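Researcher: First entry.
Model:
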Amino acid sequence: MIETSPVTLGEASCKQWYGSTEESGKGLLLEIPVLDEVSDIDVKQAFFRGMVTDIRWEKRKEGQILVADFKIEERTKPDIIMDADPKEEVGNQPPSLHKQEEFPFELESSEAIISYNDKGKMRYFKVIGIKDGKPLFYQPMPKN
């Protein structure tokens, strides 16, 4: 059951980020400013654009903020070894048989759900009006 937020929220934003190398990947950074002076709410997860990740509190000079960093997994098919000799195909991985869990909420692209623990009971509140910000491009670390 979706409830009202236990804190006063500022204007939430989402930025796509890109790592400096292909291995570092890409993702979405969801930031939700909190206008109240509380940070004792035990936040757990953020549900946003079909993805789920942990959410955390951060203190910044402009105040407290909820931050969720969604890593976007690239869905590439692994290389498959085909050979007349079946022994050469030993390294091939069998297809995954587990079913991907269904996303539990129906949300617009500008909405997110935040879960939090309230006296042992899991509760949820909706964040609306999330604005897309400028993408973040991380620079490679300098080599020594």
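Researcher: Second entry.
Model:
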Amino acid sequence: MKDENKPINDVIDHFNKIEGNAAKLAKTNFKKLPKALKYFGYFIFLFLSISIVLLIIFNLLK
């Protein structure tokens, strides 16, 4: 099996080093995030979902 973290060519490798992209850290474990950050993400997702539903309802009632 091919290593997924290995760059395709030297240009990509150089770009990753210059930009600071950590290819080996691409897999993030979201369960280890701080609780405050998780709850903030849940709040944003819930707020956007409710906003979209309300916009649809108000446009249908108009």
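Model: Note on the second entry: The mean pLDDT is 82.
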